[in-house]
Structures are given as C-alpha cells and as structure tokens.
C-alpha cells in the first residue's frame, strides 16, 4: 500500500486488549456447544474458510435517486478501491475476493491490477457487465434496452461489451460473468413480452458461446426497476428457464432484494439448488424492494434460513453446487468500509448458525410431522450467539477480534481524507 495502512502493531494491541475476554467467552460457548455434540474447533475452522466477495462499487458512498452524499476520503479510482478492500479483508479475514464492474473499473493494464490485488492477498470473483447506462462516446443508447433491444445494432454492442468483460475477467483470473440487464418496459403495450425474451435469449446465447471452458455465467433476475411495468428477466422462473435453455455453464444469481415483498427466498434457493442452477448471490437486505441495505440488518432470520438451505445442500452433496458469494449493497449513511465489515460478519454468523443446526434432530421432527419441534431445532441454532466463534476465527486468521472498533481506532478514513483529495462529480453508481 502506498499510503496509510493499518499497522500490525495497532492490530496486535487492539487484539491484546480483547483477548482474555474472548478466551473466556469462547471457552464458555465451546462447553455449551459440546453439550449439543458440536465441536467448536471444527466450527471455527469452517468459519475461517468462509469468504464473500466485495463489490468494487460498494466501497464508495452509494446514493438514492434523490441524492448522494459523498463521504470524506472516498476512493478516487480502482487502486484506491483496492486499498479499501484490502483493509476490509485485513480486519475481517472474510473478504478475500473482489467483484469488479465494467466499464466502471476500466484500467489500462489488467495484469498489473491483478498483481496489485494479489499483493494484498486479494483475487477476483465474478466480473459484472454494465449495459444499463450509456457511456461517453457510445455508438448506441441503452435507453430502450440492451440485450433485448428491438435494434440488432444495440444488441450487438451489448453482446460485445459482455464479451469484453469476459476477456478482462480472464486476465484478472475471474471465472464467471454476472449479467444483470435493466431491460423492460414502462407501459403496457410498449414491448412484446415474448419477443423481448426471445431477443434476450439469442443475445445471451452469443455471450454463452464466448465463455471459456471453465467459466460460468450468472443470470441476475430483478422484479422491477428501472422498468416499472415489465422487466425482461423479472424473476427466478424466467432466470431458471433461460439458464436451462442456455446450457450447463449458465446459472441463476439471487440478489436478495430483487423479489416481491414477503416472497420465500429460501425456497427459491432450494428450488434452484434442486436443478443444479444456483450460481451465486448478491447479498444485501431489504425492507421494501431493491433497498440494498446491509446484509443481516433487517431480516437476519431470513438470511439464516437461506444459509440453512445452503448447508443442507452442501451436506447432501447436491450436484453443481458451488455458489459464489458476493455482496451488493448501497452505503448511503455509513462509512462503506464499516458496513462491508459488518455485512461480512453477518454472513459468517448466518453460516455458522446454519452449521450448528441439529440436522438429525430436524429430520426426526420433520418425519414425525412435529411442526413446532422442527421449528425449534432451527430456532435453537438461530438464537445461539456464535460471536465468540466468529471473533476467534478472525483472530486465528490474522484479523481483528473487533474489526469496526479497530478500524475506528486506526483513523484510517482520516488518513485517507488527506491522501485522497475529492474528485468532482465522482459517482459510485447506483446498485
Ligand atoms: C441491480 O439492481 C443489480 O443488483 C446489479 O447487480 C447491478 O449490476 C449492481 O448492483 C451494480 O449496480
Ligand atoms: Zn445485484
Ligand atoms: Zn441492489
Ligand atoms: Zn439490485
């Protein structure tokens, strides 16, 4: 890192101040878990192995359609973003990968970018294409769609961009492309619903054909916004149908905020797993729609239930099951680094809670139609405070017992504020 970074000394002294309390809490929890037949050491090792990708667009302050209030010391460019991602991983030890977005993250030398990231211990997860906004000097506008546009020239431009993303991703060591399109319509009658989907499938088939052998393409559905009458890839049914038609490398990506209110997302996850089509996640939380709130901040029980399905699938060795975990959040009122630290921890929490579900007990209750007994098996896991396991996992992996407190004590943001003079008009984009 060229500028300020959080020193090993500070990390050690912050950890030392919390070590004896952690040891006590960890020992007490280990005893309680042991009474339930759970080995806390195995659990800690599983948590240490858990990782989620940081979206490069997430380290800048987000915004709503009304305004964006940039914070001090925001990343000005990709290399600043890498510094922030490295800091998040240094403290959390839970975010070893980045999910870049193009053309937002365009740079002249991707081999160099990969090297800088590797120097921070970071690698690249899925690359995201962007055909939902126009770029300067672009030949054709996406105002009326991209991959499903009525004009073949617009579709060709959008297809070429996605293929460019694959080319960049190969240089970065990525192995997947995530495609989210904003295509849809705002008026009944504006678009032929069948033909629009046909055009999307044809375009996606061309992108699919350009995938390297070991790559996957993730299709991200979203109910509405920015199209408010119909969206071309609106739901998991559409996404699954498209993934099945395209072939084995195509899988579905579940962004938690992209569903109708109260939809049973964990069941959607279970269905996609059933067909070997769960590609990955954009984790965030939601109260009303695509709110992009911090993961686990609104409905932690739902997050746990999603992980409960994932662990269930992992334990029974479900076919084609290797979901990519990524965050996709908009940090409008917090320091994005703090939000991302906490979100990674919340995902680990849900993961650990799902791991300690007594699956044999659950199966017995389910087989006996003991509805409440089965529910209580889940609740027993969900209400267990696994925080000491998470903190111990971080400590053993070289991270911080208390990531946010340590981050605040370091004055990282203050240092970056002087190192990174504000750039006029910088936008983190809307997620
Ligand atoms: C849009 O709502 C989606 O969540 C996409 O994943 C999008 O590409 C990403 O959020 C960046 O804007
Ligand atoms: Zn998303
Ligand atoms: Zn979102
Ligand atoms: Zn979204």
TrEMBL record:
It holds the Pfam family AP_endonuc_2. This is L-rhamnose catabolism isomerase. Keywords: Isomerase, Manganese, Metal-binding. Gene3D superfamilies: Divalent-metal-dependent TIM barrel enzymes. The keyword Metal-binding applies. Residues 105-292 form the Xylose isomerase-like TIM barrel domain. GO terms for molecular function: isomerase activity. It comes from Bradyrhizobium ontarionense. PANTHER family: L-RHAMNOSE ISOMERASE (PTHR30268:SF0).
């Amino acid at each position: 890192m060229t500028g300020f970074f959080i020193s090993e000394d500070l990390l050690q002294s912050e950890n030392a101040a919390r070590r004896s309390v952690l040891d006590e809490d960890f020992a007490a929890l280990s005893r309680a878990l042991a009474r339930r037949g759970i080995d806390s050491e195995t659990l800690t090792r599983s948590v240490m192995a858990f990782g989620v990708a940081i979206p490069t667009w997430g380290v800048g302050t987000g915004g709503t359609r009304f305004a964006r209030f940039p914070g001090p010391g925001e990343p000005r460019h990709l290399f600043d973003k890498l510094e922030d991602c490295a800091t998040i991983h240094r403290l959390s030890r839970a975010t070893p990968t980045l999910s870049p977005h193009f053309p937002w993250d365009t740079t002249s030398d991707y081999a160099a970018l990969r090297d800088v990231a590797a120097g921070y211990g970071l690698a690249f997860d899925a690359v995201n294409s962007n055909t939902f906004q126009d770029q300067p000097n672009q030949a054709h506008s996406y105002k009326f769609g991209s991959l499903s546009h009525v004009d073949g020239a617009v579709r060709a431009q959008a297809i070429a961009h996605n293929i460019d993303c694959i080319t960049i991703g190969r240089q970065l060591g990525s192995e997947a492309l995530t495609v989210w399109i904003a295509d849809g319509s705002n008026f009944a009658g504006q678009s032929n619903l069948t033909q629009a989907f046909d055009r999307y499938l044809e375009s996606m088939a061309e992108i699919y054909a350009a995938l390297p052998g070991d790559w996957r393409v993730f299709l991200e559905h979203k109910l509405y916004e920015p199209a408010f009458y119909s969206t071309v890839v609106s739901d998991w049914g559409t996404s699954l149908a498209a993934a099945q038609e395209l072939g084995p490398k195509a899988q579905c990506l579940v962004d938690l905020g992209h569903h109708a209110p109260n939809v049973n997302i964990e069941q959607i996850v279970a269905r996609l797993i059933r067909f070997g089509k769960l590609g990955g996640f954009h984790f965030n939380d939601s109260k009303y729609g695509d709110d992009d709130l911090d993961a686990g901040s609104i409905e932690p029980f739902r997050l746990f239930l999603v992980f409960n399905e994932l662990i269930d699938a992992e334990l029974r060795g479900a076919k084609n099951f290797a979901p990519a975990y990524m965050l996709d959040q908009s940090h409008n009122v917090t320091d994005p680094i703090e939000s991302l630290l906490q979100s990674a921890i919340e995902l680990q929490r849900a993961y650990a809670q799902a791991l300690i579900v007594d699956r044999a007990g659950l199966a017995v209750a389910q087989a006996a139609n003991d509805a409440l007994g089965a529910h209580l098996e889940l609740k027993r896991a969900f209400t267990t405070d696994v925080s000491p396991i998470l903190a111990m996992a971080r400590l053993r992996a070289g991270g911080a017992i208390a990531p946010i407190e340590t981050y605040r004590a370091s004055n990282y943001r203050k240092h970056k504020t002087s190192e990174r003079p504000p750039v006029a008009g910088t936008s983190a984009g809307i997620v």
